Amino acid sequence: MLSIAIPVYNFEVVDLCSSLDRQARQLGIDFEILCYDDLSQPEFRNINRRLDQIESLDYKELKENLGRSKIRNLLAKDAKYDQILFMDCDSEVESEDYLSTYINLLDKEKVIYGGRSYKPEADQVSHILRWKYGVMREVRSAEERSKNPYRSFMTNNFIVDKESLAECPFNEDLDGYGHEDTLFALDLKQSGIRIRHVDNALCHIGLEDAEEYLRKTKQGVKNLSEIIKMGKLGANNKLYGTYLKLKKYSLLGLCMAYIRRNESKMIENLKSPTPNLRNFDLLKIFYLSQYL
Fold first, then answer.
1. Which of 23, 24, 44, 245 is geometrically suited to a Cys-Cys bond with 40, CB 3.0 to 4.6 A?
2. Residue where a domain stops, chosen among 153, 175, 209
3. Do 175 and 231 share a structural domain?
4. What pLDDT score was predicted for residue 176?
């Protein structure tokens, strides 16, 4: 009935998989859990080898780092059931009804996205930027997300059937972190495959410190620029839409000059206990202008 697919990279997933195994067994469904490690550091591999104790689980350690798209395509290829639940490894199941909510919707929709949640506060000061961005920009109800179903999609927590994934596999041309979910959603839209949004969130617990998150954000903006160059992204994307408006009204140069003068102060603020997300937005526009 259900294949649960978890690409693993530098995170401990024993508790996550134990929760999923317990819920699936209580439901009495046919299921499997696939955990493929994408060349994590040895300390995480050593911990996650305890997954072999879970009978329903297939744990594999890959010999090379495939990246976020390739590993998902491999998991889909190896999954034995038609319905595949993908989730990020740095997640926590908060609801005892998590799997049953999805099970009740199977065969009714081709793609179902459950959303994302965060803890009430950041676990440490260096994580505040990532936590604040997540709470302010990523946490949305199913009703809100449904207004822009493709733009609101993320790959942290969704179900897809094999037929749809065969028609729209994850694009493996993007390198590194960021926006493989944007491109996947655009491909679904082009193929006329509907995304249904439901309130069935997974909690994102693997928060990066501000310095790492800024580095990954810059890489993500580079990937976004590649999608733009493919001709697949329009002004409906908030970041690209803002960039186009600034360019249209001849304000882009002034904006870039302002950011250049204040970049170090902006980054200092974003690493502080009180990050201003407006600075974060401006930096992303600055990065995008460098790549386009």
1. 44
2. 209
3. no
4. 74
Total count of domains within the chain: 2
In this structure, the answer to whether residues 174 and 259 fall within a common structural domain is no
How far apart (Å, rounded) are the C-alpha atoms in residues 159 and 71? 16
Query: Closest Cα to residue 213, out of 292, 134, 152, 120?
Result: 134
Tens-digit pLDDT profile for residues 243-282: 999 999 999 999 999 999 999 999 999 999 999 999 999 9
- pLDDT tens string 57-86: 999 999 999 999 999 999 999 999 999 999
- Whether 177 and 32 share a structural domain: yes
Query: For residue 152, which of 165, 131, 137 has the smallest C-alpha distance?
Result: 137
Question: What count of other Cβ atoms lies within 10 Å of the Cβ of residue 178?
Answer: 18
Torsion, CA 249, CA 152, CA 9, CA 30, rounded to 10: -160
The residue type of 67 is G
CA neighbor of 132 nearest in space, from 145, 144, 120, 148? 120
In this predicted model, what pLDDT tens digit does every residue of 103-137 receive, in sequence order? 999 988 899 999 999 999 999 999 999 999 999 99
Question: What are the angstrom distances between the C-alpha of 240 and each of 57, 169, 256?
Answer: 41, 24, 15
User: Are 194 and 109 in the same domain?
Assistant: yes
Token code pair at residue 81: 């059931």
Is the pTM above the cut of 0.70? yes
C-alpha 286: how far from chain center: 23
